[in-house]
UniProtKB/TrEMBL annotation:
Signal sequence residues: 1-34
Organism: Sesamum indicum (Oriental sesame)
UniProt name for this protein: Protein disulfide isomerase-like 5-2
CDD domains: PDI_a_family
Gene that produces this protein: LOC105175937
InterPro entries the UniProt entry points to: Thioredoxin-like_sf (IPR036249), Thioredoxin_CS (IPR017937), Thioredoxin_domain (IPR013766)
Thioredoxin domain boundaries: 24-150
Length: 445
């Protein structure tokens, strides 16, 4: 009897085990649902809603979500930029997925994530959301997010790792490499300036690397500007104040070409700008002058050196009372706001002995031999000599002639339009406000 019961028990135990294995195989071989299938890392922008949002957030380490509304004009302009950025971000060593949510339709989901305007971009890093305030053009967005997900300080353990790091970093940001430096020395500053530069420490490297980056002892912190083919070396002291001063000064190249994009780099830099205004920054004479400015910048790191061509950015240059007939090149010291200084005796420069003239300019500025001026719109003559001024004057002449014709045809009636006050008001609002354009350019993000 006992043996019979034992055989029955063994049978059911074996059957139960086979049954469990059968169901396990079914679960493992079940077809992938549509929701799971759309989470493939294929470089496309994911369309999320109430049913799959949380699953998507938990499925990826980094996911950029665009909370949009179909009727929003800004959203419509942003969408193609995200479409272009998505495959590039998906192909990074640390992939970033791009997704979007119709927050106007799925308002409960939008409310859960504090969406009160469109479009709102949020990046979810391991499920934790941070609002994205960076650029929204595809190429700039890729640059920004690549830095966002990178380690604060990369650890490099060989020559090949150093080369790979430099290549992966690209040319859009300056690169700092601490040779023989402990990462703890720069970790806090790496976090503080993460959006503006790459930071790394090299633990092991050869003499060839020391020769390549031109340092002869360790520890050494090397700053590299790939876009400008520049580098500098800092041997200490490594106290935070001195180290931060070096990092801040090295965020910019020795001589910065001034344009709409580079002006943004000056926003957080408190140094005065030694601005050289050229006729055409692309000609050979200008290239030679820039070489002289680099030498001066290297010896005067408490100042920022920049240059701009009249041909390249006429409106900006006119803010410093420089017009078509002004002798160039010319140097001023700009405070980055509404004030600038002209050094007495150095109002313009000639082509001979340019190095001496730059030295005299800097000496005169430091001695206070200057005239303080305000950034403003062109003078009347400058305005009249500019192309836009000529066009507006011609328009006013045409308008005046039309007014005279109307007056002569209807002289029995009082004139109700085209009074002197109205013409003056129209004239003042038509002139280009170069100072305001300059200030708004600095405030752009």
């Amino acid at each position: 009897m006992a043996s019979s019961l034992l055989r029955i028990y063994s049978f059911f135990s074996s059957f139960r085990l086979q049954l469990l294995l059968f169901f396990a195989l079914i679960l493992l071989s079940r077809p992938i649902s549509a929701a799971e299938n759309q989470f493939k890392l294929d470089g496309k922008v994911l369309e999320l809603d109430d049913s799959n949002f949380d699953a998507a957030i938990s499925n990826f380490d980094y996911i950029l979500v665009d909370f949009y509304a179909p009727w929003c004009g800004h959203c419509k302009r942003l969408a193609p930029e995200l479409d272009k950025a998505a495959p590039i971000l998906a192909g990074l060593k640390q992939p970033i997925v791009v997704a979007k949510v119709d927050a106007d339709k799925y308002r409960k989901l939008g409310s859960k994530h504090d969406i009160d305007g469109y479009p709102t971009l949020k990046i979810f890093m391991h499920g934790v959301a941070t609002e994205y305030y960076g650029p929204r053009k595809a190429d700039l967005l890729v640059r920004f997010l690549t830095k966002f997900v990178a380690p604060d300080v990369s650890i490099l353990n060989s020559d090949s790792a150093i080369r790979d790091f430099i290549e992966a970093a690209g040319t859009n940001f300056p690169i700092f490499i601490g040779f023989g430096l402990n990462e703890s020395v720069i970790s806090d500053l790496a976090v503080k300036y993460k959006k503006k530069a790459w930071f790394s420490v090299a633990k092991d490297f050869s003499d060839d690397i020391m020769s390549l980056y031109d340092f002869d002892k360790v520890p050494a912190l090397v700053a590299i500007h790939p876009a400008y083919n520049e580098q500098s070396i800092f041997y200490g002291p490594y106290e935070e104040k001195f180290l931060e001063d070096y990092i801040k000064q090295s965020l910019l190249p020795l001589v910065l070409p001034i344009n709409q994009e580079s002006l943004k780099l000056l926003k957080d830099d408190k140094r005065k700008v030694v601005l050289t205004i050229l006729e055409d920054e692309a000609d050979e004479q200008s290239n030679e002058l820039v070489k002289v400015l680099k030498a001066a910048a290297s010896a005067n790191r408490d100042l920022v050196f920049g240059y701009v061509g009249f041909k390249q950015w006429e409106d900006f240059v006119e803010s410093f009372e420089v017009y078509k007939k002004t002798p160039l090149p010319r140097m001023v010291v700009w405070h980055g706001d509404e004030e600038y200084y002209v050094v007495i005796g150095s109002e313009s420069m000639n082509e001979t002995d340019i190095g001496t003239q730059v030295s005299r300019f800097l000496e005169g500025y430091r001695e206070g031999n200057v005239v303080k001026k305000s950034v403003a719109g062109p003078t009347l003559m400058g305005f009249l000599n500019s192309q836009i001024g000529v066009k507006i004057v011609l328009i006013f002449i045409f308008v005046a002639l039309v007014m005279l014709m109307i007056f002569s045809m209807t002289k029995e009636e009082p004139l109700t339009v085209g009074t002197r006050e109205q013409v003056d008001e129209r004239s003042s609002t038509s002139q280009p406000e170069s100072a305001e354009l300059l200030r708004s350019a600095l405030k752009e993000d």
